[in-house]
Write a structure and sequence with these properties.
Layout: H1 4-21, E1 25-28, E2 36-41, E3 44-54, H2 64-77, E4 80-88, E5 99-102
Parallel strand pairs: 3-4
Antiparallel strand pairs: 1-2, 2-3, 4-5
Length: 104
């Protein structure tokens, strides 16, 4: 059984892999407790927050507090805030497509 931190790491890896295939370069901030990463491609700069769940479960909804915090950090950095919702199987493999949404 995957531990919560392993579930989160698999989700981030899948989101990073998808972005890399689109030409983005991803970078993690090493701040404790932060589960977001930066992605740069062309003229786009994204701050990506990833929510992951083991299928058939759905990734949890983001709280208003977390939403506001991510949007605020993105604005401070001059980035666009994005949410990636990822489903994985019990082995960490991607299930279906990643659901992307621009956070406003």
């Amino acid at each position: 059984m995957l531990r919560p931190n392993e579930i989160a790491e698999y989700g981030e890896r899948h989101a990073e892999k998808w972005l890399a295939a689109q030409g983005y370069h991803c970078h993690h901030n090493q701040r404790q407790g932060v589960r977001d990463f930066e992605a740069r491609g062309g003229e786009s700069q994204l701050l990506v927050h990833v929510n992951t769940a083991i299928a058939p479960g759905h990734p949890p909804e983001i709280s208003q507090h977390d939403h506001d915090s991510i949007v605020s950090r993105a604005m401070m950095l001059g980035f666009e805030p994005w949410l990636a919702q990822v489903q994985i199987d019990k082995n960490g493999d991607l299930v279906g497509e990643i659901a992307w949404s621009h956070m406003k």
